[in-house]
Amino acid sequence: MALVVLALLAAAERVYVYEVESDVEITEDVPHVLGISWRFGEQLLVVWVPRDVAPGIILFTNETAPIPLYDRKYFLLVAPADAQPNQRADAEAFLKTPDGTYPVVFRKPDAGILHTIAHSIEEALTILKQMGLQPEYRGKAELVAKGDPDAGRETAAPTLPRRPSVGSTFDVYGGLYFRETPITKTGLVVIPVRGTESVCINLPYAAYVGYDAKSFALGTSIRGGAVDADLIVEVYKIEFGGNCTFLGSRRFVLANRTIYLVDLINSTTSVDRLAVFVMLDVRSFSGQPSVGVNASLIYTRTYRYGFEVGEFAARATSASGYQINNYVRRVVIGPYVAYDGYVAQTASSSLALRIATQPEDGTCKNLQVRFTINGRSPSGTYTYRDICNGECIYDVYLPNIWEPSFQVEYFHAKAFDGGLFWVLDIEYTDGSTPYVRSIFLRNTDAFRYWRWAEQWKTSPGAIDAVWANPFLSSALEIYAAPMEPSTALVIYHGLVTIRAISTGVILTISGKIVYPGLDTAVYIKKAEIDVAMPLSVRRIDVVGGFYLMPDYQLNSITPPGWVREAFDVKRVVDFILMLAGVVGRVAGLLGFATGEGLKSVGDSVRAQVLDYYTARIIYRRGWYTNVASDTIIVPLRIPSLYGRVSATELEITRICLDNICANPNLKAYVQPEAGYLIPSIEFVKNWMFRGQVLYIRAYETSMR
Amino acid sequence: MRGMMRDQTAFFLLLVVVFSLLWFVWPWSWLVGVFVAGLVFLWSLFFVSCVGLERVFAVVFGLVAAPLALAPVVEPLFLWYAVAPLAVFVVLVYAASRAYDSLLWGLLFVVGSLWLHVIILAAVDLLSGGLLSQAFDMGFDVYVRWNVPLIAFMDTSSLYISCRAVKLIFAYVKRRRG
Q1: Are B44 and B25 in contact (CB under 8 A)?
Q2: Distance (Å) from the C-alpha of residue B144 to the closest C-alpha of chain A?
Q3: What is the pTM of this model?
Q4: Fewest C-beta in 10 Å: which of A264, A432, A512, A666?
């Protein structure tokens, strides 16, 4: 270990670290100093660090914790110690440091490193050391733009979400997922893609990128030790027949919590289907490190047929009041899944909450709330006047999400395999911290967006037959505190996906009540989902029903054998008992208790027609069976969908998971049975959604 | 004697209703079997107390109800959920036969009481705008629990009235006959 550190220090390059206040926001174009030359070309390294850390409450878990808040105009810049900039270069900005002034230009990173995200300046220095650098903190610096800093740049103005319209072309965000890989040797180490199907016949472990990717970034995380390595990304073209041919590669210095831009994948190269292969060239390591790599992608897609999109909604649902009784500066709401396929310019949020604070000297001050996504990207600042009623009550709501902030954070979330959450920075307008008595989170959408439902691209007039049944799904995520958190700490987490195929619908319902303090979870016991469509639902039918087990096997939902026998016996006995007045619709307690006792022994899932257009799917867990699964898969056969020639819109109008209900009005689209498919030229169908391909085949054949 | 009988029946009525209130906090687990068994046991004692409660019936109804609680341990006993109401019915007819010295009269008493209470329940359902049938339709629900105590109260109170009414009718008929 000591030898490794000594070796690293011997080879280390001295760098200066500046704590920068900037009047320019850093985006995909990062600062470069013209004329310098070091192992990162002319590029300066950008490391985000929190501007401040303040006491906060993580709402769903009711935990208090120090919560950092980042600022897009505050970061560390790392430059070589002996930088000799070309002072006569045409600069876009100037970096004013204690060591002199550097002329700066902004462009795509020379060395591919977009930025690193650290929790503190100390952690930033550690990451730099792990990169084989010898950092020296040199104090504060300023990055001052020449002219108007916002000229020609995208400003974070609020935008109204747009529903995609047929015929439009838009950016779609997605992700690739690789397996976390332990480092046990030096030399080349492959980072395999998650999943079981190989994209390239001649190259196992490669990941499918596909057509029309305009931007590709990798995010890294190193846990359990330190690694001195290069990250190598090879890009391949997928040929007809499944062989892959090499297009090029990029080599980066591996760093923890860092995003790399891979310029080889762009609109020009991805006119062909692309694949990527990721590996490390490990020089040395210490501890027992494992390296996680994930990718964030932006695709260009054209909406042609009316069924290629779905919706995702993340809800704070039926949440109760949180008794805080503490000084609070930050409120964290989430995290929610960054569900694949987000269509740019369609994000929205109706986040709303009521904050009750203690009056100071009998008066209520004005409260300022700054909304940020993931504590990094701002989404508006609002000042609220109070309603005084023994306590100061502030009705806080987010009128609009800031799309550019959402896009950046979604992109980061995919690269780091993370989620999306809100951080609210609350303070009185005089700068003091409020004493918060309680917070009531309203039944709202925390995040909502349209999503490209599948990774494929559709062509005008015809769709490749391999996509005959694309994975068209819409999803709803629920977070809630099902009871007063001061009584017991309980979090409800649920996810419902509605997957439409041309003859029916497959519902996947997950839910569990988590008791964080006790480290236990109780699985979903009851669900009701109302599905509406503009056609008759009268002959809707549940085609079986399954538990998804932890090992991805499907267990059929059927009552225990003796219960089925008991139902047969009951049919005979009930005939006699009906004459006696023991059983019947309102016959009495004896028949009711035994009959309902028997009926609710085992799990059941059934469809109930509510009206011509609406059906309710009802799942109930039995009191005797206790299957260790939190996920139910319910294939539904809907005969009126057969033979449709245009897309059909389905809508989930109401959802109840256990006793938590929402009216999400979530849309999903059913592909028609039109004859527009052309013969397949592809052999492998690659799904954007990890793992789910595994369970399709089990029940798809039984749908007709 | 008659006054005491009435008190005993009212006592068991109260017991059934109080026990049914436990449903509000009853865990959704194999213990539901115990709840069903308890309800069947107490309801049977309540009904039999209307014609004459003897210690032997407490034992017999205990034996009838026990398999309902034991079914989660011995799965074939789930069959008993189908048969138990019939067994209770038979024992009730037997008890009533002893009271009226005739199997036919016993059968008539039990069936008459049950049907009369069904009619009362149907009338209450009609007057309450279908509240009772809604409670029955809801069945055993893991989260919605109000229906079981309501059914227990309505069922026992209407059965209390109906069995007393049938008893009066039977006494009247017997007096007329001789």
Answers
A1: no
A2: 9
A3: 0.86
A4: A432
- d(C-alpha A38, C-alpha A43), whole Å: 8
Structure tokens belonging to residue A219? 């995010």
* Cβ distance of B36 and A594 shorter than 8 Å: yes
For every residue of A604-668, DSSP letters joined together read EEEEEE-SSSEEEEEEE--SS---S-SEEEEEEE-GGGTT-SS-EEEEEEEEEETTEEE---EEE
Average pLDDT over residues A566-584: 86
Chain A CB within 8 Å of residue B86 CB: yes
pLDDT one-digit tens code per residue, B99-136: 888 899 999 999 999 999 999 999 999 999 999 999 99
Residue A67 neighbours by CB under 8 Å, 6+ apart: A53, A54, A55, A56, A58, A329, A330, A332, A375, A423
A667-678 average pLDDT score:
75
Distance CA B89, CA A577 (A): 8
Q: Give the 3-state secondary structure of chain B.
A: CHHHHHHHHHHHHHHHHHHHHHHHHCCCCCHHHHHHHHHHHHHHHHHHHHHCCCHHHHHHHHHHHHHHHHCCCCHHHHHHHHHHHHHHHHHHHHHHHHHHCCHHHHHHHHHHHHHHHHHHHHHHHHHCCCHHHHHHHHCCCCCCCCHHHHHHHHHHHHHHHHHHHHHHHHHHHHHHHC
Lowest model confidence (mean pLDDT) among A80-89, A512-521, A686-695: A686-695
ipTM comes to: 0.95
A contacts of B85 (beta carbons < 8 Å):
573, 577, 582-583, 590-591, 594
Output the CA torsion sign for B57, B61, B63, B64. Answer: positive
Query: Which residue has 């206790």 as its token pair?
Result: A626
> Which chain A residue is nearest to residue B81, measuring alpha carbons?
A594
Look at A10 and A55; give whichever has higher pLDDT. Answer: A55
Are residues A295 and A217 in contact, defined by beta-carbon separation less than 8 angstroms?
yes
Residues of A whose CB is below 8 A from B117: 581, 588
Partner residue facing A596 (CB), from B16, B83, B140? B140
d(Cα A653, Cα A349) in Å, to the nearest integer?
Answer: 18
Tokens at residue A579, please? Answer: 């004459």
Chain B partners of A661 at a C-beta cutoff of 8 Å?
none
Is there a contact between B36 and A593 if contact means CB atoms under 8 Å apart?
yes
The strand pairing partners of A383, in sequence order, are A368
Cβ–Cβ gap A563/B72 under 8 Å: no
d(CA B9, CA B12): 5
Question: How confident is the model over B46-94, as pLDDT tens digits?
Answer: 999 988 878 899 999 999 999 999 999 999 999 999 999 999 999 999 9
The winner for highest mean pLDDT among A56-70, A101-115, A445-459, A482-496 is: A101-115
Q: Which residue of B has its CA nearest to A569?
A: B82
Distance from CA of A527 to the nearest CA of B (A): 11
Please give the structure tokens belonging to residue A695. Answer: 């369970």
Q: Which residues of A touch B152 (CB under 8 A)?
A: 589
A602-652 residue pLDDT tens: 999 999 999 999 999 999 999 998 889 999 999 999 988 888 888 899 999
